[in-house]
Amino acid sequence: MADVPIKVGIVVFPGSNCELDCKRAFGNLGAEPIMLWHRDTDLQGVDIVVLPGGFAHGDYLRTGALARFSPIMTAVQEFAAAGGFVIGICNGFQILCEAGMLPGALRKNAGLKFLCKWVELRVDNSATAFTSHATEGDVLRIPINHFEGNWYADEATLSSMKANDQIVLRYVDNPNGSLDDVAGVVNEDGNVFGMMPHPERATEALLGSEDGAVILGSLLDRVRENRTALV
Amino acid sequence: MNYTAEVKVMLKDGIADPQGQTIERALPALGYTGVTGVRVGKQIHLSVEADSSEDAARRVSEMCEKLLANTVIESFQVEIDG
Q: Between vectors from CA A203 to CA A208 and to CA A89, what angle results, nearest 5°?
């Protein structure tokens, strides 16, 4: 069982544009990427679901607002409710917030500019399935590419998230006005994670950084560990 | 019967509105001083079939909760005409 490649389901919405980067990144890390169409209702037995970046359904009303109603999202919600690992990157993070699978919402960047640049992220919780390869306080260099990355949650939500250690990644130098410098958060159960920066674009030295592999590799290892535990 | 609905979606009070702030900063340059509290929102017009105006208001409010607004950051108002 441990030798069977980990199946990573990458959900493609009309308007997604980072699915091939995710496919390559997970493939390079030894996983078996499986492309899932947003109209699918069957997740094909994948171990991990990825909601990639892009502009799902054009993001016309609000980012992620329409994507959460795609047929596959019912299956993704059931998968997550059963403890399955879900990672949303950029637009995927926005979709998870709109779907209520992660707390908060993503507003327009404080400076009203589309931001496409490298940023530094501090790992503030290295005990999650998504950050176990890091040590608390580590700084990861990963690019952002968004207009709506300004995360917000009301005070009560933020304080309960802090108490539960759900703020996983923070910007070292906040680029977009995000509340409490939040760059990535996890749900209460620790199996659904969203981040605005793009780890899949930083998994090869040629691309300028391999720090994204810390996130994706942590997740793959967690699935491997879970399998070993089951044997 | 057909009812016309006007939906106003605004960022909730207390949530920073960078669009409103930009406009507020721009107005003095045109000579309009003393302008404060600029907020930018969305207005959505729609026509909806319903049994009564109460029914129309209920249906449109439901649409707001589910899709037209993100109630984590936005508030909405529904007005039914006819």
A: 110
